[in-house]
Amino acid sequence: MAVITPGAPVPAASVRRGRRRPGERVIEGFLVLAAVVSIATTIGIVVSLLFPTVEFFGEVSIIEFVTGTQWTPLFSIKQYGVLPLLVGTLWVTLIATVIAVPLGIGAAIYLSEYARPGTRKLLKPILEVLAGIPTVVYGFFALTFLNPLLIDLWPSDDKPEFQNLLVAGIAMGIMIVPTVASLAEDAMSAVPQSLREGAYALASTKMQVATRVVVPGALSGIVAAIVLGVSRALGETMIVTIAAGLKTDGIPWSPIDGAATMTSFIAGAAQGDLPVDSLDYLTIFAVGTTLFLFTFALNALSIRLVRKFREVYE
Amino acid sequence: MSDPNRKAPDVTDTVSSTRPAPPPVALVNPANRNEGAPRGDDEQVLRLEDVNIFYGDYQAVRGVDMTIGRHQITALIGPSGCGKSTVLRSLNRMNDLIPGARVAGRVTYHGEDLYAREVDPIEVRRRIGMVFQKPNPFPKSIYDNIAYGPRVTGMRVSNMDELVEKALRRAALWDEVKDKRKQSALALSGGQQQRLCIARTIAVSPEVILMDEPCSALDPIATSKIEDLMFELSRDYTIVIVTHNMQQAARVSHRTAFFTAEVDEQGERHGRLIEYDTTNKIFTNPAQKRTEEYITGRFG
Ligand SMILES: Nc1ncnc2c1ncn2[C@@H]1O[C@H](COP(=O)(O)OP(=O)(O)O)[C@@H](O)[C@H]1O
Ligand SMILES: [Mg+2]
């Protein structure tokens, strides 16, 4: 760096163009490339799902696909009703949500409103580490610990199966608690302190401040946290493959039945050596597209909700 | 003052409570008080005796003694950082919310020590409300902003619409918002938001209203509206206002306390009360040189 003497005129050359550092160009190019690659990948995924799916529906009617109650493409009598997979997925997602939402929001309220600053500093990173535990670990936790416990404690004689949707849902719920809690806590911490003070000055208890001011004020972020948790549950594969089994020959009316979900079917089917371009192989894409539509709908819904509840704080 | 059941006071009636024999005045609903209550009566509502306030190890305020009279507007003035807000917040235990903040000495409300073990800070804040420097309406409708206090304090309200209207009228906001009560409070102008915050405070029928530079974020027209309002409210409420606008203190207050920061032997700055008297005396014939220097603009 040139030393500039106070009062001395600044050299004229320094304002001319052309002295732009070459590194700037390279970085800009890299950033454009990154953006293009990610968009292209997304388009690529959609296209690679779409063509085999169209081909699949050339051979199997959509009506059969959405109304059939058995999914047995790998059996000798082939049936292509996706409902068993769909219901399995919905059970697991529902159970996981029912567990993760109250626990996650509760933990977030505790961290943001009740915990002392020191406690929060300690707990928040732990929570974030928990969110990074591999799902296969949760799967075995469900199968070898939760399920025996569940079967032991089950009140009626109609015990849960060795692998079942309930235990997978519970494990999945536990898995997404840290995600929901951490994101919801971020949203609550972003609620201005001045609103809390206003509420306290109106003789609110701590609980009232949390539930009537902080939670409504952070609703947009809380909804986003929940949706992210739910979409993780929807797309989760390992836990259900291990803990819920791969049965697909009927709709799992009860959560204590063992059944496959969309994801675990895909994972299971993709492991076998299905000949490419066989109808069996195409089922993977048909189910994949269905899953994609669900995730897409969930995200669209979340964007609307997040907008609806967004509060703009100065 | 602790009342574990948070027994619901009635808005339209005299407040009933099960707490042990408190001084009668604390239980009278200001809305029902004799309209023609004599101005400047000598009754003390709040009293500070050798009050020292700390933030952790730092002593922000040192040795404050003062009394605050019923139905008066008491102004706290002084240069920035001299502890005005700190003193104000000690009057309804808002300092409790700041980790490490501590009040030593005695602050009494109708003779009751506000910092006694058995005192419930929530009950204190129901009787001593607060309006802040920056308007802080909740991101809810105008109506819900007003109804918030009565709801959380469990007031038995027979007609919430009526209560909301009364509070809005009292805060001189009714005509401007009567057709948009269900709309977001955040859509109001800054001055309207501040009057909404006053209305919201009035809605729980406190006896005392603390205001921390309530006009500093507002334009002159909005400021003058709030000043008129304060004057009007002082018939029924006891008001303590922090301001660094001396004209404002001179215009609205009955009594003025001048604070400044002093450097002690160890070189630490502490806020101190220099002079406390009628506003007239402070502004025309202050006893202390520093007060005179401050109000004539030669210092601070
Ligand atoms: N939350 C806090 N933590 C630590 N110090 C504080 C806090 N609030 C105020 N102070 C300090 O206390 C002193 C008085 O502050 P304050 O009461 O806000 O003054 P004023 O309202 O007169 O401007 C200042 O030195 C300030 O830095
Ligand atoms: Mg201040």
UniProtKB/TrEMBL annotation, chain A:
It is found in: Cell membrane; Membrane. CDD domains: TM_PBP2. Residues 86-302 form the ABC transmembrane type-1 domain. One of its GO terms (cellular component) is plasma membrane. SUPFAM superfamilies: MetI-like. It is a multi-pass membrane protein. This is Phosphate transport system permease protein. The keyword Membrane applies. GO terms for biological process: phosphate ion transport. Belongs to the binding-protein-dependent transport system permease family. CysTW subfamily. GO terms for molecular function: phosphate transmembrane transporter activity.
